[in-house]
Design goal:
Blueprint lengths: L34 E8 L5 H10 L6 E5 L29 E3 L5 E4 L4 H10 L6 E5 L6 H8 L9 H4 E11 L3 H7 L8 H8 L2 E5 L6 H14 L5 E4 L21 H4 L12 H4 L17 E8 L4 H17 L16 E10 L5 E7 L2 E6 L12 E8 L3 H12 L1
Parallel strand pairs: 1-5, 1-6, 2-4, 2-5, 6-7, 7-8
Antiparallel strand pairs: 3-4, 9-13, 10-11, 10-13, 11-12
The structure holds guanosine-5'-triphosphate (GTP).
The site of guanosine-5'-triphosphate (GTP) has 16 residues, from helix 1.
Length: 403
Amino acid sequence: MDSDDEIPTLVTADVDDALALPPVVTSSSPRQSGVPLTIISGFLGAGKSTLLRRILTERHGYRIAVIMNEFGDTANIEAKAINVSSADDPTAEKSEEFLELANGCLCCSIKDAGVAAIEKLMERKGAFDHILLETTGLADPGPIAAMFWKNEEYGSGLGHDILLDGVVIVVDAVYGKQQMEEDNSVDGIGESIRQIACADVIILNKVDLVSKEQLHELEGLIRTVNASAPIHRTVRAELDLKHIMNIGAFNTARPIDQAIQPVSSHDHDHDHERNGDDHQHDTPPTHYELRGISSLRVSVPVLSAERLDRLDEWIRTLLWENRLPEKGDGSDGQSSMKVLRCKGLFVTEKGEQYVLQGVQSLYDLSPVEGTETTGVPDVGKLVLIGKGLTEEVRNSVEKILAL
Ligand SMILES: Nc1nc2c(ncn2[C@@H]2O[C@H](COP(=O)(O)OP(=O)(O)OP(=O)(O)O)[C@@H](O)[C@H]2O)c(=O)[nH]1
């Protein structure tokens, strides 16, 4: 196929109910309806293609559009070849711009006009159950996630039809530690650390090649940057797709227990036996730091309406102006603070729950519907991941919550 205009009809696969993915959790907001999109990124050589190849060739019964793209730099997008072999379709060996696969997936390698090409795909949105967008090993997924989430520029087109589902990062168990420690971009924060910071789910791949001590050490390092994303240990990226698809990581209407992932060091569903895991769980510290990027967790007491407003304003100032409210207007432009990702769960005196989701400077603070069925906790939480998030930040928010 030689033109972006020609998008093939998808092969319809038989959907096996037993393999059904969990339903997408949608809110009443019209902006939260659409085809879910998962951004897959990860360290160089970590196993992104291995994961995508599995999804493209395994029989899972879902029609998934997989988009491989040098998306980080739209001015110079390069197609990335992936060799997909399918038992049902030997001709699928070739890499083409659009590749229909017998398992119902559509594989796209977009050479130009990335957003326009996705829009064309979206014209066929009824044909997809899910979109997976792979970014390069060097891309910072934060701006890409922000683009697909609540970006008014795309409100009447692309963004309207796509529901950002989550950011999945594949980390190499062998070289991950070295990559994180040595990675260094212009401002000192390497892309691998930005990727971890932005992750909703982390796939720690190639665990067959390292000892459990090395795994614990790397997981500890990952936790210094992102204390809330679940880590799934894998061999050849083998994991249940429910861990990476339809996770609703940006959905502020999700039930309470999914709003903030617990700080678990790894996947509890598997691998303990295979890797001889001794199942250690440490009490999570509340502040971590690696190369200036840190993860800060703050407990938030039950809030009056007034305090919730104050908290909202505090968050807005931090996210939009990269400063603490008490620190002036930051007009020198030299702020050392930057929130890359934030999540929160707040409880009001009236028993309502609010979920906070944010990526880069975009955020959404919305009440959760139907909380009566899930119970109301007696304390809320705020998780901030980003640069310059010192204890001063915690003190600042605690101060406004005590007023
Ligand atoms: N032993 C072992 N090898 C693996 C595993 N997963 C992937 N590999 C191998 O590691 C190499 C790199 O895997 P890819 O899937 O190509 O990695 P990638 O992230 O797509 O690489 P880039 O796109 O170049 O960044 C390949 O040779 C894989 O076969 C694993 O769990 N264990």
